[in-house]
Amino acid sequence: MLLMAITVTGASTLTYFVNDSFISGQLSTASSLDTGTKSVQLLAYDTRDSTTLLQVSNLNNKFGDQKLCGVSCSGGGLTDKIPLNGGTEFIMIKIKNNGINSIFLENIKLNNVVHAWDSQTSGIALNTLQDLSSGGSYPHDGTFSIFSESSIIQSTSNEIPNGNTVNLLIKLGSEDDDILLNKGIKVLLNIGNLNPVEFFIDSGGAQ
């Protein structure tokens, strides 16, 4: 009887420690996987076929063509031109990093098409009044730039410090299909985590 009691007690103690360790491990793993998604908040977006996207002066799409122009506006010598001159159009997204650490936005996928950060915009004031070839400054076709709420100086890196709210300016490129208005756009922000941050927004909408 004494031997059986010792055996039962030992087994119970071992089971407690194994289960406690397993549960703690699971919670830790789940937390680390979910951190990226929970830390990035979508505050606003503007995908209108219109002017002054997210109230940024002179940031205009070509009003009246009832679509966001991608591949059909990327050829014929129009590459990198502003939309009003026949170039591809813009999408604006405002996000906030709610995490305790900086995040590094490696790329943005729109409907599974990858858009890299344009390092040529680093430290330069946004200028969408002119084409790049004429002194303008904005992301090249198929890329994006980052700038804060309070300034149009584009970021010197793809880092978004903790607590910061930034605008992401994406210029459609030759691999982006034209997006008809009222169509959904799947947005994936690759912040170097196992799980990218995922949003769905409406083409032609602003929020």
In words, what does this structure look like?
By secondary structure, this protein is α+β, with helices and mostly antiparallel strands. The protein has one domain (38-202). The protein is 18% helix and 28% strand. The chain contains 1 helix and 12 strands, in the order H-E-E-E-E-E-E-E-E-E-E-E-E. The strands form 3 sheets. It has an 8-stranded mixed beta sheet with strand order 1-3-9-7-6-5-11-12. It has a two-stranded antiparallel sheet with strand order 2-10. Strand 11 (184-190) and strand 12 (197-202) form a beta hairpin. The radius of gyration is 23 Å and the shape is globular. Residues 1-37 have low confidence and may be disordered.
